[in-house]
Please model this.
Amino acid sequence: MAYTQFDRVPNHYAGPIIQKVKDFRQANGKRSLSPTLLEIGQLQVLIPRHFGFCFGVERAIHMAFATLEKNPEHRTFLVSEIIHNPLVNNELKERGIEFIYDAEGRRQVSEDELGDGDIALIPAFGTTLQIEDSLKQSGIDTSAEEYRENYDTTCPFVSKVWKRGEELGREGYTIIIHGKYKHEETQATHSHTKEHTQTLVVLDEAEAKNVAAYITGEMALADFERQFAGMASEHFDPERDLQRVAVVNQTTMLAEETQQVTETLREAMRQRYGEENLDYHCADTNDTLCYATNQNQNPTRALLRSSADLALIVGGYNSSNTAHLVEICSEIMPSFLIANSDEIISRHSIRHFDIHAKQMAESQDWLPGKFPVRLIITSGASCPDILMNQVLQKVAGFYGYGEAEIAEANLSIFEEI
Ligand code: SF4
Model:
């Protein structure tokens, strides 16, 4: 199989226009957070400085395709979706990979159906110790060095969170995971950290405020237990286990929200134990934040000052980091999350995923008729560039611009912000 210049993901995931944008940024304004402006006649497309595949996703895709290539004689399974993108998961399925768990966490392949010689890839988010134990029962030893090197695609930034969680647990801290309880990565992190210490999952700043209220004595035990039922490790005792805390995150959460969660808990500890004892009661865990979380979110924030007419965000509907990009853009402009260009029905009608209602929606007259028109097009960390490329081509087509005009597009760094 042919790979892109990075020798990591298959060539057909790259998109020629998007690659041109990336090459342009490699050569110009590499350090600036300003977006790239692509001018196709009267159509202005702003593409953020960073978008699309992060290191961990590229690595996981590379490992999955390499496994299929190198092991044609073995049955290959994936514990669950390798990343949250339907194009990639469907392609792996078409190539013969079976999924042990579906996207809702239901087991599809029983322990008995797996055997010695089978390969079970662990996805980029990692997996729980319980699932690893189950694989071991089937004769697949996920702790073997060869297995870890070749078939465990857990992103190193996720395993770093587990390692730090273990260290903090040994130092006596309770781990607070800022994440979505059912997300595979949060489940995996919870499973690992609770081996070493008590663990609690908080979804957002509002939940962190409730934890803080308990710490400062403003929330009764019964209310705390009702609020966090099922979100903590077994035998979690808030009185004992909320005296010293350390916050880590599901790496695809909004980085600034994780910082707010930490700050809220630090403030509660400051109130209860005093400034001089703060670090003892709330650990500094800034070093556990994945670089990619900020790398895609900060340039997207930078776009908000660009007076764009609307934003198209391309990515999987169950992708947490993609949903956060939608949240950021929709603060000030109409923003549409679409899985691919097929969701664009016409220049008058678009199908898109509503991240709040968690269902598909359809909007009319979504594209401005005026000239010049300025659009933002970006994608989440699990989205192949080709999907963004196709969206851009389709939109350009509505304004009468075809391949020839796109090939002649002018590229510059958008310095107005
Ligand atoms: S977002 Fe960060 S932790 Fe998650 S896969 Fe990408 S690089 Fe790894």
Observations:
- Residues 41 and 51 are 24 Å apart (CA to CA).
